[in-house]
Design goal:
With 96 residues, the chain is α+β, with helices and mostly antiparallel strands. The chain has helices at 3-9, 11-20, 31-35, 55-69, 83-92, and strands at 24-29, 42-48, 72-76, 94-95.
Length: 96
């Protein structure tokens, strides 16, 4: 299944998980985010953290998303993206 179709199918579940782990604004990035149609073995999500967010929140979200999509998932915050790439990644990120 194409990433765009998988994300669309699970849109509500992704938003519920993001809220459950005290995060916000889920976006898809990387090859799947660029055109939404690159098939691959992984998905990359960009989320905004909030005051008090912990690594357990980010890791918990990652595990839950991997179970939901059945593939490797990476969860990043804007601060996790190297500064020299941050503007490009943020501009290319596609809302879930």
């Amino acid at each position: 299944m194409k990433p765009s179709a998988a994300v669309e199918k699970h849109r509500e579940a992704v938003h519920a998980l993001v809220r459950r782990f005290h995060l916000s604004n889920p976006r898809i990035v990387g090859a799947a985010g660029e055109n939404g149609e690159a098939e691959g073995d992984e998905l990359e999500f960009l989320v905004d953290d909030r005051p008090g967010t912990t690594l357990l929140d980010l890791g918990g979200l990652q595990v839950e998303l991997e179970e939901l999509f059945g593939t490797q998932v990476y969860v990043l915050t804007p601060g996790d993206v190297p500064e020299y790439l941050r503007t490009k990644v943020l501009n290319e990120a596609r809302p879930v």
